[in-house]
Specification:
The protein has 28 helices and 3 strands. The chain has 601 residues and is mostly helical. The protein has a 3-stranded mixed beta sheet, with helices on one face.
Length: 601
């Protein structure tokens, strides 16, 4: 209503003339009127978004800690029926508030934020009420990660953090009691993962924590209380492990719920999680076609490399066997078992240097990346490497590159893992996880003008960018454009494609373990250990494995579209920086924002 101030006297004395004057203003300066209306709606929406986030961290303190918001760091949610009822009420309130905004009256940036918030709250509500993963996935219950974040992130002096931990420790027994009451019809696979990861959680409560306590400035009374609560938390965790172990024995008899969620639930989860421009069937068909295309390209590279490595050895007639033979030969070149994590650590500076020299995108040396061994409470889900990123509220905190060491593997398992992550593939892994992959993307996301786009980020965009980053590096000449690294990248990219095929067919078409392992080893050329881990991962997650190929395909299509539209003005660096500036929004939303920006230029 600010326009009323333009004609205050006319409004009071002659409302008809005021209306005519306003109509003339609207017709003469429509963009001004629309802009004012949009600005008002944007301001109201931003106010609502900020309020929603403030309520969210109070409602879900663990998620707050995860994004670097520590105001409620001492709070801990007990996963009982009451907390789930409160959660659903929170989602309903937020959805009702969002329903008051017309997307067409918001700027493009806020329209995307609205869609992200709506999707997040609808998805979370659906999970509680329809999907009910809290009933059948015991692996959801684990206090290790949250306590690990508080202890390892220097968001406050040690004494403050220890007091936060002490307050939380008091609730651990109630937490695990509620977990036991919540579990109903669990799957065997999620029960086994819960056992493994909760054993890892006990390591968070080990002697190192007592050393920190002893060396702190807490009072003697506080230290005594801390130790008492710590012992009760350890006991509660151990009791939960014993409960799960007994449960596992019962489930082994064949009464376990299937890990397969079926076609209907899968389609719903895919829509919420991936937010794709493709349907499940479209993406599945596209992946199968891409698999065949990669086989054609790999055959050419393998034939070129054959004389260099195989001398006069006869080339197999079966092209898949020929490709596999060539890959197996290259895979004998790898680091040593005991040096695996250190080799990863040493490769990071070279990736930073290459990106800088090729001027592929902006980097920020002030945001540290720390390579570490995968914490024990995070192991066992089939993923050998991951990124634990700093949150948007604490962007200068360390980002951790978690790498699982090979010391607990058998000789055969370690040998298989080293062949899989050979001298070439290990570099591609580091590109994917670190630079310019996940680590770089999440640093950029934390600088987004919109926290919504970072906090409610889209996993397919995140994973798709990491895959896109691999190709970005090779296209720029990384690895000297040698056939070896291209062949190994194609093998790696084939994993991305096959992930989609596997996930859809395992979860919705009853694909057997034997068929899955055969596909991965024969058609994706994976080592047996890698294929076995991927099967395990596919039984523990649903839809997530499709995020890699979906995101990659959408980003490539967007890059090609922008190159075609911009012609000679297209810049690889500008595209990358602009793409990453929108947080972790879905690719289709980033496309909308990039096209809107083009129209303004």
């Amino acid at each position: 209503m600010k326009n009323i101030q333009l004609f205050p006297h006319h409004f009071v004395a002659a409302p008809t003339r005021f209306f005519i004057a306003m109509l003339v203003c609207w017709l003469s300066f429509p963009s001004l009127a629309l802009s004012a209306s949009t600005a008002a709606q944007d301001a109201a929406f931003q106010q609502n978004a900020n309020r929603a986030l403030t309520e969210m961290w109070r409602q879900f303190p663990e998620q707050g800690v995860g994004v670097g918001y520590y105001k409620y760091a001492q709070e801990m949610t007990v996963p009982d029926d009451a907390s789930r009822t409160h959660a659903v009420a929170f989602y309903d309130r937020q959805l009702a508030a969002l329903a008051k905004f017309d997307p067409n009256r918001l700027s493009a940036a806020n329209r995307v934020d609205l869609l992200l918030m709506r999707n997040q709250f609808e998805s979370s509500r659906w999970d509680v009420i329809e999907f009910k993963s809290w009933r059948w996935q015991p692996s959801q219950y684990n206090v290790g990660n949250d306590f690990g974040l508080l202890l390892n992130t220097e968001y406050a002096p040690l004494e403050t953090r220890l007091r936060h931990v002490m307050t939380r420790l008091a609730k651990v027994p109630a937490y695990y009691a509620a977990a036991k009451d919540s579990i109903s019809e669990p799957t065997l696979e999620h029960t086994q993962l819960a056992i493994l990861q909760n054993k890892g959680a006990l390591s968070v409560f080990d002697d190192d924590l007592l050393k920190k306590l002893k060396g702190s400035k807490l009072s003697a009374a506080e230290k005594t209380m801390f130790q008492s609560r710590l012992e009760k938390a350890r006991q509660a965790t151990s009791d939960f492990i014993a409960y799960l172990t007994e449960l596992e024995a019962k489930l082994q008899s064949g009464n376990a719920r299937s890990f397969r969620i079926g076609r209907e639930l899968y389609a719903q989860k895919f829509a919420y999680d991936i937010q794709s421009g493709f349907s499940v069937d479209e993406l599945h068909k596209r992946a199968i076609a891409e698999k065949a295309s990669l086989h054609d390209a790999m055959e050419k590279r393998a034939r070129t490399l054959w004389p260099k490595y195989m001398d006069a050895k006869e080339m197999p007639g079966d092209r898949l066997i020929m490709i596999r033979t060539m890959i197996d030969e290259l895979a004998t070149r790898h680091t040593k078992r005991e040096a695996f994590v250190e080799t990863v650590r040493k490769q990071i500076p070279a990736l930073e240097k290459f990106v800088r020299e090729k001027d592929l995108l902006d980097q920020d040396r002030t945001r540290p990346l720390v390579v570490r061994e995968m914490p024990r409470h995070m192991r066992g889900d089939g993923a050998g490497a991951s990124i634990s990123a700093a949150g948007p509220y604490d962007p200068k905190a360390n980002t951790y590159y978690n790498v699982t060491p090979l010391d607990e593997m058998s000789e055969a398992e370690a040998a298989s893992e080293l062949r899989e992550y050979n001298d070439w593939t290990l570099q591609i892994l580091n590109i994917h996880e670190a630079i310019p992959g996940h680590y770089t993307q999440l640093v950029h996301a934390n600088k987004s003008k919109s926290r919504i786009k970072t906090i409610f980020g889209n996993g397919s965009m995140v994973e798709g960018w990491a895959v896109f980053g691999e190709k970005l590096m090779l296209d720029a000449g990384y690895g000297n454009n040698e056939d070896e690294i291209w062949l190994m990248w194609m093998k790696w990219n084939l994993r991305t494609v096959v992930n989609t095929v596997l996930d859809v067919e395992i979860q919705t078409m009853n694909m057997s373990k034997e068929a899955a392992i055969t596909m991965m080893m024969r058609e994706a050329f994976q080592e047996e250990a890698e294929a076995t881990n991927k099967w395990k991962r596919a039984t523990l997650n649903q839809v997530q494995l499709t995020s890699y190929y979906n995101g990659y395909a959408e980003i490539v299509a967007l890059r090609d579209e922008m190159r075609q539209k911009q012609g000679e003005k297209f810049s690889v660096k500008d595209f990358n920086n602009q793409f990453l500036s929108y947080g972790s929004a879905p690719v289709k939303s980033i496309r909308e924002l990039m096209l809107a920006r083009m129209q303004k230029i």
